Each structure stands twice: as C-alpha cells, then as structure tokens.
C-alpha cells in the first residue's frame, strides 16, 4: 500500500474547486451583458424611411391562437406592405384562417402561394425560396406563424436597415401567456439561460445569427450568399441567415424591441423532444461552442464541488452562489429587461431547468440523428440527410 499524500490531495481538491467556480465567471459576464444591452437606447424611428415591405409566412399546420397571431400583422401601422403566405394545398385549416383574414381585413394585401414546388429536407426553407422569389418588394420580414406583434412592429424592425451597414435585424421574444408547468419551465429557461447566452454573444463578439421568430432583411442581402436555395437542405436556417449576412461585412442588429410568441408545448415530453433536437443541431453547427457549454453548467459543477469536498462551507458557498447568480440573471433579463411580470414566483424552477438542460446537453453527445416533422435525419457536413436514404444505400451484411 502506498501512503496517502494528503498535501497533494488537498492541492488537487483546491484546483478542482477553482475549476468548479468557472461558471460563476460566465454568470457575471451574463449579468454585465444584460445590464449593457438593456441600458442602450431604443432605435429612433425615422418617419421618412418606410419602404414597402413583404412579410413572408411559410406555414404548415395551425399554431395555437393562429388567427390572432396572423391578425396582428393585419393591424400594422405602416404605409405599404403585403403578407405573402406559402401553404400546402392539402391544408384546409390554414387556408380557412387566411380566408377569414381576407374577409376581416379587406384593406390588407394578402397573397397565398400553394406549395413550394421544390423537394427539400427543410420544407420551411423550401417555402421561403418561393416566397422570396415572388415577394413584390425589396425589404423582407420573415416571421413564424406563432408570432404576435404590436402595430409599430414594422417601423421598428425596418428602421435600422436605412443604414447600409446593417444587413438584418432580429429581436427577442416573450410568451404572450404562460399557463402550464411546462410553459413555466420553458419560459424560465429562456429568460435565465438562452437569452443569457445570446446577450453574452452580443457583448463579446456581436450577433452573428438571427432569431427565427423575426428577421428583417433585404433581397440583396439574401442574394449575397445565394439565397434560401443554399439552405433548403440544412438545419438552423435562422442561425445561418444571420451568420451568412454577417459574413458579408454587415451588422446583424439585435433590437431593443420584443415580440410575443404563443406557448405551444402540449406536454413536458414534447418540450424535451424539441429541445433535444435543437441542441443536437447546435452540436453539429457549432461543435466547439457546444462543448464549451460545459463551463456554463453551474448546477453540475456546484454539485460536483460538494461531492469532492463535502463540507458545509463548500455547500453553502457553491450552491448559494449558484442560486443567487442564477436568480439575478433571470430577474435582470426577464423582469427588469423584458418586463415579465410575476417571474419571481418561478425562480425555484431555475435548478429544475438547469438539470434538464444539463441532461439534454449530455444526451446530445449520444445522438447522431434528429427527428423532425415525422422523419429522421443525420446531419452530415451541415446538411440534413434522411436516415432512410443512408440505410437503403448501406451494403448488406453477410452473416456467417
């Protein structure tokens, strides 16, 4: 038996505790980033810059509150714009809602395209290819069908594009109503985790992506990287649109303006499924950044610190600091910045979300495919490859 080297064991323990505290540095950066972001002035509207706009809506199926979501775009305070839908011909429910919109808002210019006319893995992007080509105007706004906006929306998202150095605008989004426990967990994750990462990116290197619920840009900027045709077999089209526009030397501007989205998670398992799909895509799109999430897992590292050094002082220091900083992040971003009322009631859900997020992150390393719209895909060199096409071309195994 070798004698135990207590001195070196103590040093190793202290080194581990120092490493375990790294997430706290990230939390402080997130707090500083949110303070800076929400302290900046909002865009000053230029009433002389109101170019005509095409609002592009690729739609598949009805979202909850679909009529009110889409009707909010018919109430915009803007001189001239069109709403251009691309829907499947065999989707009568969506067509019924659009017919109702036309009847209720006859003054609104609404056009409907039936199908993309393309074969692509990413049906949404295939629809956007056709929408972009048939849009009447140079300035475009791409928006999901679960989005609800205020009358000043177009003025806000279009105004920064007057500056030729701004290639696109995007904005944060908040839930219009939070009901179920699943909605509350998801909302707490958005406010304290996802947006924290977005604002840290904004602070450290600028925004090099766009957020799917709202993207405003121009046909010229899309043509600069080959248009949506380049993305129709790729995942994370919103991330890529921002990245490819930024690569042209343009700024992607994250506005001090929020829109609303409708919570649509019918069950906790549905939330897990969607979040796992998203994080597997991120592992493939940003592998080093995805691996770096290890150093943002405060709950994991705090529990590990207590396991390695199980004393009351360490437990209080790590778990107490973890919870205080995470609550401060949620309140700074969600309550103070995004004006979400009653968020403090759900602060105890932060460790629940963090545990779920950590489990999904670990699970993502074991997944080689994603399930999307009822089909399974591998992600190979940034492309969506149907699992069925890979298995059908694989050589048959010979049994002995």
Structure in words:
It is a single chain. The protein is an alpha/beta fold. The chain folds into two domains: 7-37 and 285-367, no CATH class; 46-264, Spore Coat Polysaccharide Biosynthesis Protein SpsA, Chain A (Alpha-Beta Complex), CATH 3.90.550.10. 49% of the residues lie in helices and 16% in strands. It contains 15 helices and eleven strands. The chain has an eight-stranded mixed β-sheet, with helices on both faces. Strands 9-10-11 form a three-stranded antiparallel β-sheet. Helix 3 links the parallel strand 1 and strand 2. Helix 1 runs antiparallel to helix 12, helix 2 (22-39) runs parallel beside helix 13 and helix 10 crosses helix 14 (350-364). It is globular. Residues 1-9 and 392-400 have low confidence and may be disordered.
CATH class of the largest domain: Alpha Beta
Please list the strands of the largest sheet in the order they lie side by side. 3-2-1-4-7-6-8-5
- Looking at CATH, the homologous superfamily of the largest domain is Spore Coat Polysaccharide Biosynthesis Protein SpsA, Chain A
Instruction: Flag low-confidence runs.
Output: 1-9, 392-400
CATH topology descriptor of the largest domain? Spore Coat Polysaccharide Biosynthesis Protein SpsA, Chain A
Just name the CATH architecture of the largest domain.
Answer: Alpha-Beta Complex
Q: Please, what is the average pLDDT?
A: 90
Question: Structural class from helices and strands?
Answer: alpha/beta
SSE string, helices as H and strands as E: HHEHEHEHEEHEHEHHEHHHHHEEEH
Q: What coarse outline follows from CA principal-axis ratios?
A: globular
**Total count of helical runs of at least 4 residues:** 15
* Biggest β-sheet strands, sense, barrel: 8 strands, mixed
Q: Distance N terminus to C terminus?
A: 49 Å
Number of strands: 11
Helix content class: 40-55%
Radius of gyration: 23 Å
Number of domains: 2
Beta-strand percent range: 15-25%
